């Protein structure tokens, strides 16, 4: 059974930091590209950051320089360090196993709420 379990969300003031973590099980993590997405109320889900199986990273323009995605293959975890948070970062954040030629099936976590107060 595949599980992607997010943790680390919460309420933080603008300018603060949070670290999200996603623990994966039931997949071959080392060959998986992973991503963090977010969805704010009334908006479409959007890619925040992704990391390939080899560690190459990609970021949305809105978070470049503030967020850092990282992975630990030994622990099957992918983290998102979020600094200099803004109220517009408020959303439910989802962990995602990306579809690639190495691992085609996508999976989503249940999401974790991040709220940034002004």
Radius of gyration: 13 Å
Q: What share of residues is helical?
A: under 10%
Class by SSE composition: mainly beta
The proportion of strand residues reads: over 45%
> Which assembly state applies to the chains in this document?
single chain
Given the structure, what is the number of helices? Answer: 0
What string gives the helices and strands in order?
EEEEEEEEEEE
Structure description:
- This protein is an all-beta fold and 118 residues long.
- The protein has strands at residues 3-7, 10-13, 18-25, 34-39, 46-51, 57-59, 67-72, 77-82, 91-97, 107-108, 112-117.
- Strands 2, 4, 5, 6, 9, 10 and 11 form a seven-stranded mixed β-sheet that branches. A four-stranded antiparallel β-sheet has the order 1-3-8-7, with no helix packed on it.
- It is globular, with a radius of gyration of 13 Å.
- The N and C termini lie far apart (40 Å).
- The model has no long low-confidence stretch (mean pLDDT 97).
């Amino acid at each position: 059974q595949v599980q992607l379990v997010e943790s680390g969300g919460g309420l933080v003031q603008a300018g603060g930091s949070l670290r999200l973590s996603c623990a994966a099980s039931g997949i071959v993590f080392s060959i998986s590209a992973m991503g963090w997405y977010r969805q704010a109320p009334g908006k479409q889900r959007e890619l925040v950051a992704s990391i390939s199986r080899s560690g190459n990273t990609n970021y949305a323009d809105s978070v470049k320089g503030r967020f850092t995605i990282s992975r630990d293959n030994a622990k099957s975890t992918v983290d998102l360090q979020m600094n200099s948070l803004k109220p517009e970062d408020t959303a439910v954040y989802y962990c995602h196993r990306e579809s690639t030629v190495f691992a085609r099936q996508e999976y989503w976590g249940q999401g974790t709420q991040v709220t940034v107060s002004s």
